[in-house]
Specification:
Strand order of the largest sheet: 1-3-2
Number of helices: 7
Strand content: 5-15%
CATH class of the largest domain: Mainly Alpha
Number of domains: 2
CATH architecture of the largest domain: Orthogonal Bundle
CATH superfamily of the largest domain: Winged helix-like DNA-binding domain superfamily/Winged helix DNA-binding domain
Largest sheet: 3 strands, antiparallel
Structural class: mainly alpha
Number of strands: 3
Radius of gyration: 22 Å
Helix content: 55-70%
Length: 187
């Protein structure tokens, strides 16, 4: 009975993190892989992950490289075994910071650039069109969106700059325990 609940919980969590990953603009399989690794008390091989997540090893491998680059998972070897094994990093603030760093510049810069380009198009309209109510409406809407993106960019930049505000403070704020510097043990 316990095993059924454990498997059911793992599958539900894998599905949930797949949706969350997609929301953040990452592939669903990447979220599923992290979920499986996160809920495993032991490091998982690529073979085990592929079976749990339902994705081929070739399809999963690039996602694991991204998760590793973001510092969300660690690749480790086991003595006498040539396979790579993956374990989860549970430093959520660090993971969020790395994800924001990875996505922030690329996505926000692209969004800001696109909105700025649209505003430039409106500003480049002939002088006689500048008084057009539709042009003025579009300019106001785009300017509002640009202010929003600029503000969001400042918020993310501020969050990233608060790196010293890490685990201990978040632990106190959200009821968790602070890291003691020792590696977490799996109960």
């Amino acid at each position: 009975m316990t095993t059924d609940v454990v498997v059911q919980t793992r599958e539900h969590f894998i599905h949930a993190l797949s949706r969350i990953a997609r929301f953040w603009g990452f592939p669903k399989a990447m979220g599923a892989a992290y979920a499986a690794i996160y809920l495993s008390p032991v490091p998982l091989s690529l073979d085990a992950l592929a079976e749990m997540v339902g994705v081929t090893k070739g399809g999963l491998s690039p996602h694991l490289r991204v998760l590793e680059r973001l510092g969300i998972v660690r690749r480790e070897g086991q003595l006498g075994d040539r396979k790579d094994y993956y374990s989860a990093d549970t430093d959520f603030w660090g993971a969020l910071r790395r994800i924001l760093q990875e996505r922030e510049k690329r996505e926000f810069d692209r969004a800001l650039r696109s909105v700025s380009e649209c505003l430039a198009l409106l500003d480049g309209a002939p002088r006689e069109r500048q008084a057009d109510p539709l042009l003025a409406f579009q300019r106001e809407r785009l300017a509002t969106m640009k202010r929003f993106f600029d503000g969001l960019d400042r918020i993310v930049s501020t969050l990233l700059a608060m790196d010293g505000f890490r685990q201990a403070t978040f632990g106190r704020l959200f009821g968790g325990r602070a890291r003691t510097g020792r590696k977490e043990r799996h109960a």
